[in-house]
């Protein structure tokens, strides 16, 4: 019955700001990069990072969204078909460094699917990965370039990122087994 | 046992709405340079067409291929169906290759339900006799929602050969499910008996009664299913009395036809060529709607409600 708040609203906002600073540090011209949020919570996260980068560096990166439902490797083995969202990439990715943005990095399979989905739209010169939480337990050779927080976890736990745009509150919560149905 | 799609009534209003949203996602895929996604890689789809088809057969085949499935299409001509192999034996043979989906068109109502007894594959009814054609209804709903607007509250009039039409049967049920008012207009000999009670629609034999409709759905005269001169005195007389033309429409009414059309019979030549009709969008939307159906049947073998999908997504990491 335990749900632990690991990161509260203020801490979460500071962490997102730090990631934005790190991106600016490594990309002198933010207008030449694209932030692509992976549905669902990668999308508002990418929006926030873009706004922060614009306020820090004076130029806004391009923004896109990516849906990976059609690229999953576990089709039919989940209890319900994944919700299919929009993919919106209104710029040519062959000319831009793309930073994929997601909330939680876990097995790496979502990112594998995201890379496949992204590369169907073109060949970006560089692809990086920004995540708010890295909880370990990778099943594929994938690593993030920008990490908000590292939380070593048990596989029976669940890490839930909540963002005001979707959930009405900013926080990161750890749920233990019995709560995960 | 996987879920099958044998009639439009196999899905409810929420599931139809979800399928139409998924179809919209595939519209984006079709706008790309590479019109293919790896979603159904390694899956097998068998199209089994005992009866003639251009649109349905082609769009199902292409839908499967664009999802990266292996697709086999078997037509009546050139297969053992010509040698008199029964439906049961054909299905048992194909089932031994362990397909994920069987898409079946057959001249007899109930053939798809029967076929489903002999295979573990999901069965999609691509038209069985005068009974049902659920993917046609879905693509019609998608087309109206996209080109005309929300279906709830619209008035759709089906005109012509209702009695022989599986397009009408599935379409009427589909449009009513989504909240449209539906009426049918046609000669008494081409209306099913007790249409008012059995279909739950207003029935008229006067073509002037299409005036109230937002959408006029013109049905093909199914000449192959009626003997000459038995149900209508002549095609000329039918065209004069029930043929839909610009003269019988008011501005703003949208015209649909599932094809193939008999020009100058149920629909006037120049109306069939009018870019304002929904006939071309209907054909184009067939493929993306069928992609959505194939995706859904294979991705959610136990049948998924919107709620469970939402939960599934929330727990995914």
Descriptive overview:
The complex is a heterodimer of chains A (181) and B (317). By secondary structure, chain A is α/β, with parallel strands linked by helices. Chain A has one domain (13-73, 83-154): 3-Layer(aba) Sandwich (Rossmann fold). Chain A is 27% helix and 27% strand. Chain A has four helices and eight strands. Chain A has helices at residues 9-26, 42-57, 109-119, 164-167, and strands spanning 3-7, 33-38, 62-66, 97-105, 126-134, 146-150, 158-162, 171-175. In chain A, strands 3-2-4-5-6 form a five-stranded parallel beta sheet. A three-stranded antiparallel beta sheet of chain A has the order 1-8-7. In chain A, α1 packs across α2. Chain A is globular and about 45 Å long. The model of chain A has no long low-confidence stretch (mean pLDDT 91). Helix content of chain B is 38%, strand content 15%. Chain B has 317 residues and is of the alpha/beta class. Chain B contains eleven helices and nine strands. Chain B folds into two domains: 8-132 and 283-306, 3-Layer(aba) Sandwich (Rossmann fold), CATH 3.40.50; 149-277, Rossmann fold, CATH 3.40.50.1370. Chain B has helices spanning 13-30, 55-66, 87-95, 111-116, 134-147, 166-177, 195-199, 235-242, 269-272, 279-299, 306-315; strands at 44-49, 70-75, 101-106, 122-128, 155-159, 181-185, 202-204, 215-218, 254-257. In chain B, the strands form two sheets. In chain B, strands 7-6-5-8-9 form a five-stranded parallel beta sheet, with helices on one face. Chain B has a four-stranded parallel beta sheet with strand order 2-1-3-4. The two termini of chain B are 28 Å apart. In chain B, α7 links the parallel β6 and β7. In chain B, α1 (13-30) crosses α10 (279-299). Classes of the chains: A alpha/beta (181), B alpha/beta (317). Chains A and B meet through loops of A and α1, α10 and α11 of B.
């Amino acid at each position: 019955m335990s749900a632990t708040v690991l990161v509260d609203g203020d801490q979460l906002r500071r962490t997102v700001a730090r990631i934005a600073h790190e991106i600016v540090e490594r990309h002198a011209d933010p207008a030449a990069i694209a932030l692509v949020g992976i549905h669902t919570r990668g999308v508002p996260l990418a929006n926030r990072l873009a706004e922060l980068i614009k306020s820090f560096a004076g130029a806004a990166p391009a923004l896109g969204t990516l849906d990976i439902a059609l690229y999953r490797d576990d089709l039919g083995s989940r209890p319900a078909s994944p919700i299919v969202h929009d993919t919106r990439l209104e710029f040519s990715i062959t000319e831009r460094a793309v930073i994929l943005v997601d909330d939680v990095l876990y097995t790496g399979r979502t990112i594998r699917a995201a890379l496949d989905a992204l590369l169907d739209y073109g060949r970006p010169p560089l692809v990086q990965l920004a995540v708010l939480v890295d909880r370990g337990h990778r099943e594929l050779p994938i690593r993030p370039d920008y990490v908000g927080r590292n939380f070593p976890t048990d596989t029976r736990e669940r890490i839930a990122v909540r963002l005001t745009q979707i959930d009405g509150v900013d926080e990161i919560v750890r749920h233990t087994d019995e709560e995960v149905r | 046992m996987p879920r099958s799609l044998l009639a439009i009534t196999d899905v409810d209003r929420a599931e139809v709405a979800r399928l139409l949203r998924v179809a919209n996602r595939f519209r984006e895929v079709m706008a790309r340079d590479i019109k293919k996604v790896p979603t159904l890689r390694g899956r097998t789809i068998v199209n089994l067409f005992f009866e003639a088809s251009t649109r349905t057969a082609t769009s199902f085949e292409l839908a499967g291929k664009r999802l990266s499935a292996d697709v086999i299409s078997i037509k009546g001509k050139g297969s053992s169906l010509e040698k008199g192999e029964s439906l049961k034996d054909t299905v048992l043979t194909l089932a031994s290759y362990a397909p994920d989906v069987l898409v079946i068109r057959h001249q007899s109502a109930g053939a798809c339900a029967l076929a489903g007894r002999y295979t573990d594959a999901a069965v999609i009814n691509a038209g069985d006799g005068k009974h049902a054609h659920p993917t046609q209804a879905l693509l019609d709903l998608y087309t109206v929602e996209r080109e005309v607007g929300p279906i709830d509250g619209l008035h759709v009039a089906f005109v012509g050969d209702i009695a022989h039409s599986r397009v009408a049967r599935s379409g009427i049920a589909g449009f009513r499910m989504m909240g449209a008012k539906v009426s049918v207009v046609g000669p008494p000999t081409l209306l099913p008996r007790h249409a008012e009670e059995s279909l739950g629609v207003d029935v008229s034999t006067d073509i002037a009664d299409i005036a109230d409709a937002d959408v006029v759905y013109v049905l093909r005269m199914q000449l192959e299913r009626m003997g000459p001169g038995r149900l209508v005195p002549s095609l000329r007389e039918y065209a004069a009395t029930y043929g839909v033309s610009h003269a019988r429409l008011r501005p703003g009414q949208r015209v649909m036809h599932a094809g193939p059309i008999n020009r100058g019979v149920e629909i006037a030549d120049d109306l069939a060529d009018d870019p304002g009709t929904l006939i071309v969008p209907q054909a184009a939307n067939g493929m993306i709607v069928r992609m959505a159906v194939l995706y859904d049947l294979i991705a959610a073998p136990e049948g998924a409600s919107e709620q469970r999908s939402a939960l599934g997504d929330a727990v995914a990491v």
